[in-house]
Amino acid sequence: QVQLVESGGGLVQAGGSLRLSCLASGNNFGIYDMGWYRQAPGKQRELVAGIVRGGSTNYADSVKGRFTISRDNAKNTVYLQMNSLKPEDTAVYYCNADHPFTRRNYWGQGTQVTVSS
């Protein structure tokens, strides 16, 4: 069982930066593939960035070059550094953990990011 708690959201002006954190409880954090998703009002939840246990990363085209995902396995934490934020980045951001073998999947409660123009 894994519990995920996101933090770091807030209100920022366009062009600004935020860093989201996701703290995971439970054991064996390092084995999980981790991801950040977001859901804007009236839209489907979408993958923003992912990082597998080996450290490889992938990004949505809309955030490439602006967002960076990283993880600190010693701290059971995954981060999302968001730079050059745009109003269209406004959404609730969710942390996700996926066990690569059992495929059990866990979600955090979400953190709101609002970018004003």
Low-confidence stretches: none
The amount of helix comes to under 10%
What radius of gyration results from the CA coordinates? 13 Å
What is the H/E order? EEEEEEEEEEE
Strand % is over 45%
Mean pLDDT: 96
The largest sheet is:
7 strands, mixed
Query: What's the overall geometry?
Result: globular
Helical/strand content category: mainly beta
Count every beta strand, where a strand is a DSSP E run of 2 or more residues: 11
Number of helices: 0
Oligomer: single chain
Can you describe this structure?
There is one protein chain. With 117 residues, the protein is mostly beta strands. The chain is 0% helix and 51% strand. It has strands at residues 4-7, 10-13, 18-24, 33-39, 46-51, 57-59, 67-72, 77-82, 91-98, 105-107, 111-116. Strands 2, 4, 5, 6, 9, 10 and 11 form a 7-stranded mixed β-sheet that branches. A 4-stranded antiparallel β-sheet has the order 1-3-8-7, with no helix packed on it. The protein is globular.
